[in-house]
Structure formats: structure tokens, C-alpha cells
Amino acid sequence: KAGVTQTPRYLIKTRGQQVTLSCSPISGHRSVSWYQQTPGQGLQFLFEYFSETQRNKGNFPGRFSGRQFSNSRSEMNVSTLELGDSALYLCASSSKKDTSAQETQYFGPGTRLLVL
Amino acid sequence: AQSVTQLDSHVSVSEGTPVLLRCNYSSSYSPSLFWYVQHPNKGLQLLLKYTSAATLVKGINGFEAEFKKSETSFHLTKPSAHMSDAAEYFCVVRGNSGGYQKVTFGTGTKLQVIP
């Protein structure tokens, strides 16, 4: 089975721009979660999607949004980029059958975003 | 409330010596616990997980961890370090909170292996 894939792997943007990151989960996985990793804050949960619906959200401003498509692929969008948004954005998928299930998450390689 | 504390931000060991990476957690519910490893410029790879079965969990690459409820700990160990083990390790707790899954990552422990 192919693993979680994320595109693009690297991205450079300037302040004020917006960016869209993509995540394709492992085949058959219906849950996709997004995380932001920075040296200062570590790994922080952004949001989780299950069956095209956002099921859980971390403490990030509204500039961060996402969606999930019927094929379980997910996109994350950040508008009005700030320097502090520079980070590694990780996507993880799991095969859980319902929102309360505890299933192992499998991570993609991440998208490294640099905001200048 | 749910939290994870990785007690050491950096650990340095000599190749061939044992590895101990410490993790303490708190959770209102019976949690699942995980250890992930991240090599430079890579995503996270699952090492092992505890989900209320056996308290001693064996993972990949010779790593294992023991769940000790009385001590609220889930320390990661390996009998003999290899150069390829040099990476950052994250302890993660997942638990139900209001019908949703709450995931909390530790701050990570960087393992250095000295030849």
C-alpha cells in the first residue's frame, strides 16, 4: 500500500499570500488530520476531517482552513500568510470507522513552507 | 485534561549502549500511547503503540516501551543503540474527550548516538 503523500514538498511564499497544501491518505483511510511543526511550538494539532466533515479543531486562527473530498483527499489552506506560519505541515491518515475510534495515525513526509 | 511530558529534550548515548527516553502522561480517560520517530527532514514514523493490551509493547528496530499506569509513564528503551537511531522521538497520547479524539504530542527528545 502506498503511504500518505503530500504535495508540494517545499514551498516558498511571501507575507500576505495564500497557500494550499494537499494530502492523499493511505487507500481506504477515511480520517485525515493536519499538524503544524515549528522549532518553537513543536507539533500542534490543526484539524481533523472524517468523511468530508471537520470533526475536530485545534487552536489556530480562522486563516487556517481545510476540507476533505469524497475520495478522502484533503487540502489545507492558509490565507494572508505571516512569517510565523513558516513550518513543516504534516498530514496523517487513519483507518478508523467512526469519529470516536482510536486508530493509529500514519504520517506523510510533510510540506515545508517558508514565508518570506 | 490531557498532557504529555518528555523529561529530556536531548539524550546522548554511545553506540552499543542502552537507550532510555522518558515520557510521562496525564489523561482523564484510558488513553492510547504512541512513540514516533522523526529523522531530519522526514515525516513521523510509528515505532510502537499501547492500546490497553499488553503493558510491554515491542516496536520496530528493537525498541520497546512499558506502560506503567501507577507511574503514568511510557518510557521508550532499546538495549543497544545504533548510529541510525539518531533522530527525534515523540511521545503521543490519544484519548476521547467529549466524543472526539484529542491528540497531544510531547515536545520531543533528540537522541544523539556517539560512535
Helix and strand topology:
The complex is a heterodimer of chains A (116) and B (115).
Chain A: E1 5-7, E2 10-13, E3 19-24, E4 31-38, E5 42-50, E6 53-57, E7 64-68, E8 74-78, E9 87-94, E10 106-107, E11 111-115
Parallel strand pairs in A: 2-11
Antiparallel strand pairs in A: 1-3, 3-8, 4-5, 4-9, 5-6, 7-8, 9-10, 9-11
Chain B: E1 3-6, E2 10-14, E3 19-21, E4 23-26, E5 32-38, E6 44-50, E7 56-58, E8 64-68, E9 73-78, E10 87-97, E11 100-105, E12 109-114
Task: Please describe what this structure looks like.
The complex is a heterodimer of chains A (116) and B (115). Chain A is mainly beta and 116 residues long. Chain A is built from no helices and 11 strands. Chain A has strands spanning 5-7, 10-13, 19-24, 31-38, 42-50, 53-57, 64-68, 74-78, 87-94, 106-107, 111-115. In chain A, strands 2, 4, 5, 6, 9, 10 and 11 form a 7-stranded mixed sheet that branches. In chain A, a hairpin with a 2-residue loop joins strand 5 and strand 6. By secondary structure, chain B is mostly beta strands. Helices cover 0% and strands 58% of the residues of chain B. Chain B contains no helices and 12 strands. Chain B has strands at 3-6, 10-14, 19-21, 23-26, 32-38, 44-50, 56-58, 64-68, 73-78, 87-97, 100-105, 109-114. In chain B, strands 2, 5, 6, 10, 11 and 12 form a 6-stranded mixed sheet that branches. In chain B, strands 3-9-8-7 form a 4-stranded antiparallel sheet, with no helix packed on it. In chain B, a hairpin with a 5-residue loop joins strand 5 (32-38) and strand 6 (44-50). Classes of the chains: A mainly beta (116), B mainly beta (115). Chain A binds chain B through residues 4, 33, 35, 42-45, 48, 55-56, 90, 92, 99-102, 104-110, 112, and chain B through 32, 34, 36, 41-46, 49, 51, 90, 94, 96, 99-108.
